[in-house]
Amino acid sequence: MQNKFIKIYHDIADKIQEGTFSPQSKLPSEHDLMEKYNTSRETIRKALNMLAQNGFIQKVQGKGSIVLDARKFDFPISGLVSFKELAKKIGSNNKTYVKKLDLIKPDSYIQEQLKVKEDAKVWEVHRVREIDGENVILDKDFFSKVYIDHLTAEICANSIYEYIESDLNMTISFAKKEITVVEPTEEDRELLDLEGFSNIVVVKNYVYFDDASLFQYTESRHRPDKFRFVDFARRTHG
Known about the structure:
Layout lengths: L3 H15 L11 H8 L3 H13 L3 E4 L3 E4 L5 E4 L6 H8 L3 E11 L3 H7 L7 E10 L2 E11 L8 H6 L1 H8 L4 E11 L3 H6 L8 E10 L4 E9 L4 E4 L8
Parallel strand pairs: 3-10
Antiparallel strand pairs: 1-2, 4-5, 5-6, 6-9, 7-8, 8-9
GO biological process, one term: negative regulation of DNA-templated transcription
Protein name: Trehalose operon repressor
InterPro entries: Bact_HTH_transcr_reg, Chorismate_lyase_/UTRA_dom_sf, TreR, Tscrpt_reg_HTH_GntR, UTRA, WH-like_DNA-bd_sf, WH_DNA-bd_sf
């Protein structure tokens, strides 16, 4: 037999997905939910916590439970997909804003991530991704100039991967990824629409060509309500 808070969770989650509770609206108060479901405050709080953990609501101090957009865009963990390719797939209104494009001397951290020396030259590219009118991704890319000699703001606003593969005729092969959940930085809050959000999802990518040359290190910083990170796994036997 299901616990009562799980039944309440499913009922409210279904209403959010059906549009009965629209994105950015407030759920009824805990007191009103207690009356509606004829249950205790503890049971309602368990259901609300479960809704928050699964991305249906954001509990905001002083405002109550804010309904999030239940439409999440699948972001493949194991694949290598550019934002332009992802945007075509999800069919949403999107824009890319190039906030920074500099040729830098890498600090010790970037030297370590890209496996380059202190006197190397590295492209630093910061791009904000807007989806449906909201800034939800901050991409901070670092490319070794040994492999990518030339970059422009126009290339960065369109697709760097498209430029590498179509214009430079180089084959992007594989990546190592790390996914963490962290508190937003001041820069995150300045560039992304994060009101009411206390965490962001950071995907670090180490990207290689087909000859196993490491050419890119990326920190892709995502607002958590818009993306569902997915993968397909197969168990091997023998």
